[in-house]
Amino acid sequence: MSCHPQYAATRKSWGINALGTLAVEVEADDGTVGVGVTIGGEPACYIVEKHLSRFVEGQDPRDVELMWDQMFRATLNYGRKGLPIQAISAVDLALWDLLGKLRNEPVYALLGGKAKDRLPVYSTTGRPDIAKSLGFVGAKIPCPYGPSDGDEGLRKNVEFYKGWREKVGPDFPLSLDCYMALTVPYATRLARALEPHGLKWMEEFLPPDSYDGYKEVRENLRGCNVMLTTGEHEYSRYGFRQLLESRCVDVIQPDITWLGGVTEARRVVAMAAATDTLVIPHGSSVYSYHLQYAFPNCPLAEYINMSHSADKIVPYFGGLFPDEPLPRNGFIDLPDRPGFGVTLDKTKLTRPYKRSDVESQIQAAANANRKLPDKPHFPF
């Protein structure tokens, strides 16, 4: 939106937070509750209550693949990306949290256990100098100007980055977040201009559906030392397959609370491993940390600093999880608690589309009592 002066100053001005948060709870027969969180607010609540719930109530919580497939197929006519997949993500995460609690194991243990002893963290921030002093192993700053600002804007971007490079020193990894705002020619010029100043990576420099554009920038920058990354706003394995097959980026950055939850994320991580592509998820806090601990090709976590002056380490999810683990001295260490290891504070939450117990019981009975196949047949 930087091309529209009315909305160029802040992301909140054009409504990045307009929909709000969605929290999903899935409760087992014994009262154990799993929790999943994403964005989407009331519209996503409607999708979960009125559509997705029928594929979950009455099911065995271990059958995460079955439930994910049913939810995904049932929303194809209006889904595939965006809000419906975010809603599926919250349900899926709640199921993994529930499964971990029922088995008394952390989610990373359910995924195969730890593939690394500790997970280092970089910070997305407006103050990379403070991030360095707080112990983060690198930082990422926003790109302040775009193509509509012309050559002067490009020069200002270079001066902006150079200023922070001088403050943090030559050896501190410093990346640039472009938030879908650039064009192929501009991204190419910017990366070349910032390469001498040690730009680590240039992130999400084109709109997410510009797959050919990402390939063009990759070709334009052959021999350049700047790494290319994207994927924050990509959804499901089908979107990531296009990025991975073209090898147009060095790092993919799925948001675990958006792309389809842990069930889909582990497929994407496996696909990335086959092309030697690193996976550094966008934000997601505990939902990405557990996934990253379980896979070798997820070497680094992101912490998005939400504090007013970027000088404090505060919870990513605000007050939703009072016991949310936080980075310390450049690492994120997870407690050995079941599920994702966090407790939901429901004080300020509402349930706008609550269904009756009878409606839930009818849906549960349909799943629990479904007819099993009694005659085998060749399935294809």
Automatic annotation (TrEMBL):
Keywords: Magnesium, Metal-binding. Residues 128-224 form the Mandelate racemase/muconate lactonizing enzyme C-terminal domain. Gene3D superfamilies: Enolase-like C-terminal domain, Enolase-like, N-terminal domain. Transmembrane segments: none annotated. The keyword Metal-binding applies. One of its GO terms (biological process) is amino acid catabolic process. The keyword Magnesium applies. This is Mandelate racemase/muconate lactonizing enzyme C-terminal domain-containing protein.
